[in-house]
Design goal:
Low-confidence stretches: none
Order of helices and strands: EHEHEHEHEH
Number of domains: 2
Helix content: 25-40%
Number of helices: 5
Structural class: alpha/beta
Radius of gyration: 17 Å
Strand content: 15-25%
Mean pLDDT: 92
Length: about 120
């Protein structure tokens, strides 16, 4: 069985190994192929300014990765997020947003209709 997945910035396979473990337990030979790399976006001065404004201007942040939240906190370590609102495509990501201090956090299924409804619910 070939599992195609994302990798970290160094190209190492990253993510949950549940499927690979289940397949191996059932007797399958499992190989992993890293098809893309994930890494934090480097915010320039203009990007940092936009992010700081969006932390309090009523914008709704959409997160599909807790790594994105961690990167945001790293790049804006003194920014308060109490006035910020976020929609997160998994409960684990929503927990990360809550720990980061986002004032309003909604968990949503990652389908378009569900995400749109979640955004509308906090506008």
């Amino acid at each position: 069985m070939l599992i195609v997945r994302g990798g970290d910035a160094q190209g190492r396979a990253q993510g949950r190994d549940w499927l690979a473990a289940q397949l191996a337990a059932a007797g399958a030979e499992v190989e992993t192929l890293v098809a893309y790399r994930r890494g934090p976006a480097a915010l320039d001065a203009a990007g940092r300014a936009r992010a700081m404004r969006a932390a309090g201007d009523g914008s709704v942040w959409l997160f599909s990765s807790s790594e994105a939240i961690a990167s945001l906190l790293q790049q804006l370590p003194t920014q308060g997020w109490q006035a910020a609102r976020a929609v997160c495509t998994h409960a684990r990501i929503a927990e990360a947003a809550q720990r980061a201090g986002f004032g309003v956090v909604r968990a949503s299924r990652p389908e378009l209709d569900a995400v749109a409804a979640s955004i509308e619910s906090i506008r």
